[in-house]
Amino acid sequence: MNLTIEEQEMLDGKHGKGIQLATEIVVKMGDLYGAHRLIKVKRAHIDAAAYATIWDAGTDFVEFLVNHGARVAVPTTINPTSRDIKDWEKMGLSKEFSDKCERLETAYINLGVTPTWTCAPYQCTNAPVFGEVVSWSESNAVSFVNSVLGARANRLPDLIDVCCAVIGRVPEYGLFLEENRAGEMLFELEDFDDSWFKDSADYAILGYYIGEIAGSRIPVINGLPESTTVDQLKSLCAAAASSGSVALFHAVGITPEAPTLEKAFQNNREYQTYRVNPASMEETKKKLCTAKEDKINMVLLGCPFYSYDEVKEVAALMKGRKISGDVRFWIQISQTVYHLAERSGIKDIIEESGIQFIKDTCVLVSDPDNDWEFTNVATNSGKIAQYIPGMTKTDVVILSTKECIEAAVSGRWY
Amino acid sequence: MEWYESKVIVGGKSEGEVLFSEIPLSFWGGVNVSDGYIMDVRHDLHGQCIKDKVLCIPYDKGSCSGSGIMLEMIRRKTAPSAILCVEAEPVLSLGSVMGYRIYQRGVVIHTVTDEIYQKLKDAKSIEFDDKGRIRAVRYENNS
Question: Could you write out the three-class secondary structure of B67-121?
Fold first, then answer.
């Protein structure tokens, strides 16, 4: 890889041991994946935030950087931590686990990150612009900024995301290059009437279906309705990056690099077409369901973290109603969205119905050894449906947002 | 047994008992960091332990956190000894690269073509050399 004089000095240790180690790792990975140079970025998002994801090895690493003088070089937001910082006790977490989370959170604050603790930074304070190269991680967020915003991000693995934020540069490979952003396969939506694609869950199921076939390739989706919202695309991003490793998709007429089918494929005419119809959606929904009975004792929304508008939708559906005493209902959000809900009063409407907000964290990145005291989960998220059965030894069913709410009220999902 | 050409992504020599799958795997959410057991209920290796084994998966998928999981598994000594795949994304390789740098040990990772990968379906044990070659040492029905 060709380095500038400044980059060579960083590698040689002239800017301290922290910068040196970060540069060394980035250069090593750049060489491995065929990058010829580093490119400067103006913003970053770090995924490696949760103690229960990077554990002691990662904590030691971040502390090493901090203790050896490294700081983030560009404005940098960060993913959820492993606890609700204010209300961790309400989640049933131990003091010992909470202390470990705090140690890592402190290291990151000392590193200079903006303490957003959210997996949807693009709905918080960090939204890249079209064509901008960014240092990005968190599989849903990489897909979102690439696909929905048209920024340029690679799926940076945890910990190299920290290194890149610290040196303010990324190795140039993959999706940073225009020619690597062309669609590689077509998903043609067929026979869907107007009742489809009104709810996030439909986007999650479609995303899951596409991700399984696409793997790491770039799918083009044709046929999504014009009414598709940013929150619904967020749901699609997270699911396709859970069943596969989709880092970029194009939705014709919806996403910025796909005004037409031809543009989505960069005029390439040879590609395979997969037809998606209501039957393929039903089949995927069934595949995601591990539930063996009709009982529900947990409803989990907010994966990725819910936006203010999504919280508002739940408030409108819940107003004046109460969830069943046998059910817990958690909405995972950032402290930022929580404040907005507090100011407008929808926080009270939701909490009065028995729903609890989980802030700064989510079940998936919290303590795997915690006794979660629930066994049957309903969600509208494809990412939760993929991971939660293995991670918390529970059963899961994917439902529309409205169905999730009805299940919470009745304690039954059918 | 015949040697096949491979591409060395990380590390070099290794040999071990094989766990073979044609289904991609996410290390985060898919593997238990404390004991190396596969916990993804939809994976055909669910319930198997990858500690000190040669894990064969076509590629990795899912969360960007796989690298953090891998580094911690290396620290806790619950990691596989080697991974053989068709495509090794940075999320799969970084943890091992950092393991060699920080703990002086890691996971050997090689890639092979899809054609060679299919030939190893029934291998019981695979040997990796540091020149970019691998071979099946034993096969399922042939000791």
Answer: HHHHHHHHHHCCCCCEEEECCCCHHHHHHHHHHHHHCCCCCEEEECCHHHHHHCC
Q: Choosing from B6, B21, B34, B63, which is the catalytic residue?
A: B63
Name chain A contacts of B26, Cβ cutoff 8 Å: 242, 387
Question: Could you list the mean pLDDT of each consecutive 10-residue stretch along chain A, which spans 414 residues?
Answer: 98 98 98 96 98 98 98 98 97 97 98 98 96 98 98 98 98 96 98 97 98 97 98 98 97 98 97 98 98 97 98 96 98 98 98 98 96 96 97 97 98 95
User: What structural domains and CATH numbers belong to chain B?
Assistant: 4-139 (3.50.30.10)
Reported ipTM = 0.95
Assigned CATH class of A182-287:
alpha beta
Residues 6+ apart with CB under 8 A from A194: none
Query: Is B6 assigned a catalytic role?
Result: no
CB contact under 8 A, A53 and B91: no
Domain locations in chain A?
Answer: 5-178, 182-287, 289-410
**What sign results for the dihedral spanned by CA atoms A183, A186, A187, A193?**
positive
